[in-house]
Amino acid sequence: MSLQLDRSAFGNAAHKGNTLTREEATALFEEWVLNPRLQLHMKQVANLMKAWAAEKENLGEHDQWRWEMAGLLHDADWDQWPEQHCKKIIEELESRNVDPEIIRAIASHGPAHFGVEPETNMDKMLYAFDELSGLIHAYSLMRPNGYEGMDLKGVKKRLKEKSFAANVSREDIEDACRRANILQDELISFIIPRQAQVA
Ligand SMILES: [Fe+2]
Ligand SMILES: [Fe+2]
Questions:
Q1: Ligand 1 centroid from CA 141, angstroms
Q2: Residue 1 pLDDT greater than 90, yes or no
Q3: Where are the beta strands (DSSP E) in 75-121?
């Protein structure tokens, strides 16, 4: 099964800045994503994207929502149409005249799978948060107190343990950090306390 998108342009520049409303995005999310575990993953990534936009990019409310929306919908078609991931959500957002930057971020959240290179900071951070967020959540589930008391050292230990959350690509995590020009430690330290809020 190939998920290659075979294209490099997304959306329409005339729709720059357009978003779905929070209500519209939530309706789409709830209609398309039925698996509660996947829902949680998408909400966690959404929260990290919003936090990064606010704290690291110093963006205002509208832009924070653009980042959050990219996170919230990045895997929207994975549950019911995995063979069309992420083609289907991209086409849906294009048909709804959504900001091309949001669509592009979704299209580049797995360059090895979709064949689209992350370019903007939004692209790069979505790619960087995606796998690492999943690994950290898996770790929280095996700890007696979840996120409470979780530290960088523990996460790094799990990262080195290839059998732990084996479906999480360590290569992708390294590749994403390199592209975003962020130290893995820094990213993990950013994620732990913020993800604990959406667990
Ligand atoms: Fe995905
Ligand atoms: Fe994801």
A1: 21
A2: no
A3: none
90 CA distance to ligand 2 middle (Å):
14
3-state secondary structure of 148: coil
Hey, is 195 helix, strand or coil? helix
Helix/strand/coil percentages in the chain, nearest 5: 65, 0, 35
Give the CA count within 13 Å in the CB-facing half-sphere of 151.
Answer: 2
The pTM (predicted TM-score) of the whole model is: 0.98
Strand, helix or coil for residue 4 = coil
Distance from the alpha carbon of residue 100 to the mean position of ligand 2, in angstroms: 19
Q: Tokens at residue 199, please?
A: 């667990």
Q: Compute the residue count for the chain.
A: 199
Q: Span 58-64, mean pLDDT?
A: 98
What spacing in Å lies between the alpha carbon of 47 and ligand 1's midpoint? 16
| Span from the CA of 34 to the centroid of ligand 1 (angstroms) | 15
The radius of gyration of the chain's CA atoms, rounded to the nearest angstrom, is 16
- Distance between CA 182 and CA 161 in Å, rounded? 22
Q: How is residue 1 written in tokens?
A: 């099964």
